[in-house]
């Protein structure tokens, strides 16, 4: 018995049983957090989880500083790819027409954010009866500048074309549409925001995001198949 407070003590580090009872839910949550559930990296690996969500997604909501809305934000669904199915690069490659409203925005202000959720393509969250807004249903927002890569080695006949045409085959037909002048762009990543568990959001630097081991991303994705 604790003579000062009258509380029985746990044999573990002298912590009171009352305190242990209060900490138990947090201990359970921490244990769950370290598990790679359903193919997703553990929530302790923020950069790895962000890379996982990016690679398993094929589209997202790309937001711009709108010209036609006088500077208000404008969100637009955009197909993208970060690599072929077995090559997670983390790059956000886009195949867009300059006639698209968002692309007109980027000509004035290239800043953009791409919002993604683990629910989008794999039903990762609904299979676990998680609402898309549940913290355990990972949400990722990738921010940076949209830049043209048409004249670079990344664009035509490069990794962007391989990434996009392999996962969005219809884009091969768009490439032949001379009137729309489709071309390759990428979101030049500056930072990544993520919520994938209780405890609030984390901000990942571009360096840490790209440093995440892509082989681990492929390893986790393999568990989904």
Kindly describe this structure.
The chain is α+β, with helices and mostly antiparallel strands. The chain is 30% helix and 24% strand. Strands 1, 2, 3, 4, 5, 6 and 7 form a seven-stranded antiparallel beta sheet that branches. The N and C termini lie far apart (54 Å).
Largest sheet: 7 strands, antiparallel
Structural class per helix/strand content?
alpha+beta
Proportion of residues in helical segments: 25-40%
> What's the number of helices?
8
Sketch the topology as an H/E string, one letter per element.
HHEEEHEHEHHEEHH
Overall outline: globular
Report the end-to-end length measured between terminal Cα atoms. Answer: 54 Å
Keywords:
alpha+beta; 7 strands; disordered N terminus
Short description:
The chain has 225 residues and is of the alpha+beta class.
Itemize the secondary structure elements and their pairings.
Blueprint: H1 17-33, H2 46-56, E1 59-65, E2 73-79, E3 92-96, H3 101-108, E4 111-117, H4 119-122, E5 139-148, H5 159-167, H6 171-174, E6 183-195, E7 202-205, H7 206-211, H8 214-222
Antiparallel strand pairs: 1-2, 1-4, 3-6, 4-5, 5-6, 6-7
Helix pairs in contact: 2-8
């Amino acid at each position: 018995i604790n003579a000062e407070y009258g509380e029985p003590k746990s044999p573990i580090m002298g912590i009171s049983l009352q305190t242990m009872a209060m900490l138990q839910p947090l201990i359970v949550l921490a244990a769950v957090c370290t598990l790679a559930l359903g193919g997703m990296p553990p929530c302790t690996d923020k950069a790895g989880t962000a890379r996982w969500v990016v690679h398993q997604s094929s589209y997202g909501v790309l937001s711009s500083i709108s010209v036609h809305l006088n500077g208000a934000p404008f969100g637009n669904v955009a197909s993208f790819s970060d690599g072929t199915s077995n090559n997670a690069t983390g790059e956000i490659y886009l195949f867009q027409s300059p006639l698209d409203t968002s692309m007109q925005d980027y000509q004035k202000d290239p800043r953009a954010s791409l919002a993604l959720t683990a629910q989008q393509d794999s039903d990762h969250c609904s299979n676990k009866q998680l609402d898309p807004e549940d913290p355990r249903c990972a949400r990722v927002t990738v921010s940076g500048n949209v830049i043209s890569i048409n004249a670079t080695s990344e664009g035509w006949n490069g990794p962007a074309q391989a990434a996009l045409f392999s996962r969005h085959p219809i884009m091969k037909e768009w490439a032949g549409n001379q009137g729309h002048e489709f071309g390759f762009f990428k979101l030049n990543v500056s930072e990544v925001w993520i919520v994938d568990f209780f405890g609030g959001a984390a901000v990942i630097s571009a360096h840490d995001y790209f440093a995440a081991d892509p082989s681990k991303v492929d390893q986790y994705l393999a568990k989904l198949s």
